[in-house]
Amino acid sequence: MSQNNTDQFFKSTVLGHPAGLFVLFFTEMWERFSFYGMRSLLILFLTTSFIDGGWGWTRENASALFGSYVGLVYLSTMLGGYFADKVIGFRWAVVVGAVLMTLGHASMAVETEFSIYLGLVLLVFGNGFFKPNMTSIISEMYKDRPEKKDGAYTLFYMGVNAGAFFGILLCGYLGEKVGWSYGFGLAGIFMFFGMLQFWLSQNIFGDIGLKPNKESKAKAEALDLDKRNPFSPLQLVAIAFSSIVALLWLLNDPASKISGGKINLFSFLGSEGNSIAIVSALIVFIILLIYRFTQYSKITKEKLIAVTFFAFLTIFFWAIFEQSPNSLTIFASDYTDRILVGNWSVIFLVVNSLITILPLIIITWVLILLFKQTFKYYAVANIILSISFIILWAIAIWMLTKDYYTAGYLSLSDSTLERLKIEKVATALTEVPATWFSTLNSLFIISLAPLFSKWWESKYNPSANLKYGIGMGLLALGMACVAFGANGIEPGAKTASVSMIWLILVYLFHTMGELCISPVGLSYVSKLVPARMIAFMFGVWYLAVAIGMKGAGMFGENIDKIANEHGLSYFFWMLTIISILVALFSIGMSPVIKKLMHGVK
């Protein structure tokens, strides 16, 4: 029996998947470590007072900059996807992105005004080159095994969240407890390790992701029998207009607020210039998108409409889910009782030790499995990966040692404290870092991802619309928890002492919702989109995510206004209602979208 051209990747497997998937797993893990580690600190750094080393910004200004930053991060994937497809290939795009991000984190660690802004710019472009092309490599590896894609993306997503967990846990801890520059700098170190590991292991991917040449382009065109739809000059002008205006809006929105109106690129349009500009860009883009859909063959057109529908739902998901580093972090910092004493202190220390050490053991076990399959072929890459894990273990153990000492459960001599760079304390105290709650999302992902992966591969696998409906419903349930917990906070209150249980429940339900939507959404893009459009359409998908991210920032900008007038609970109830409406809309559209997907499950 003849083999298909991707069977080579399945000859050497780890947990039933190609070893190459786990090279991507660890590369993405270190990239997400750096991204989420820095992101967890950004709002806190911007809003912390000058005395405590921050910039002393208002929550509105901090949320505006945060929303534009994360929006630009995902918008830049359009650029990265194009260059990878047409010019440099997936592999070089990943390396270029990793280098830019390493430099970006290093720049932020300097902590001057110029270096912080420069670092954010480098991180935006670095993510643009890196992010869409990792998933594009997976799509190519599994193009002849569509039934394995959901499981592969869910395992890959487990790697994403392993990096996010340790990034938030360790960078957040160092940033809050030691110094902001330590948190920003640590993020860059692990990004550098990820880049080296990927580059030295790249031959494991065969011909996937190499720089495009005439032969590869001709082969791709021969396999693609779909109707071509080149851009006309007028369409290119429309794309340029929408892109430039959207980019300027993302930059101008925080700049105009931070400068108090002194900087405003759209002031010539009047007092509502920002709104007029972005609405105009969206209208032009939507008209262009509708027209282009009419130019494809019937089946391709309908599949692309289905992808666009899911992208539309994704906007709402991320706009609400991404309150984690924004309004939920503010809630954890200012409105949650994070001081623990007595038995509660002991319970937290034990739990925190377990959720730190056990995931490290699991991921180290996966690392060992990968070593068994690849060490003799990629020894240097595996050694670098080992060094990065030794450093990770060392920092984690140092953090736990410091926590037990400051809580009064561990005695250390002055010389030991000096060697470990731990400050001596006079009063025993356990204070949970505000960023710690964000680690729960990644912890629950690591715990629950295998269960959801098995569910998607079973006969009980729900339809795409039902998955989205369940996901948005769980999102609503999480927001309802924090809304209920905030019920007793009076309008205008700047501090409170709400129980931590509400935030823990939020992250549990939101994690289950994320598993229903995020990795599954990426899988449907790869299933529904023609091969020649895959990297670009992943870019379009991330465009929807970018809109959602900026939406999250815009929600966060208004938290003080709403809380002052109606109370903080009102803000979270609003997000709950929006989630419920989107869930019902997704389920109600099931028959229509099922037809448009043409049998894709």
UniProtKB/TrEMBL annotation:
Its main location: membrane. InterPro entries: Dipep/tripep_permease, MFS_trans_sf, MFS_Transporters, POT_fam, PTR2_symporter_CS. It comes from the Bacteria. Keywords: Cell membrane, Membrane, Peptide transport, Protein transport, Transmembrane, Transmembrane helix, Transport. The keyword Ribosomal protein does not apply. It is found in: Cell membrane; Membrane. The chain crosses the membrane at residues 12-29, 41-58, 64-83, 90-108, 114-130, 151-175, 181-200, 271-291, 303-321, 341-370, 377-400, 434-456, 468-489, 501-522, 534-555, 570-593. Coiled coil: none annotated. SUPFAM superfamilies: MFS general substrate transporter. Gene3D superfamilies: MFS general substrate transporter like domains. It holds the Pfam family PTR2. It is a multi-pass membrane protein. NCBIfam families: yjdL_sub1_fam. This is Oligopeptide:H+ symporter. It comes from Flavobacterium plantiphilum.
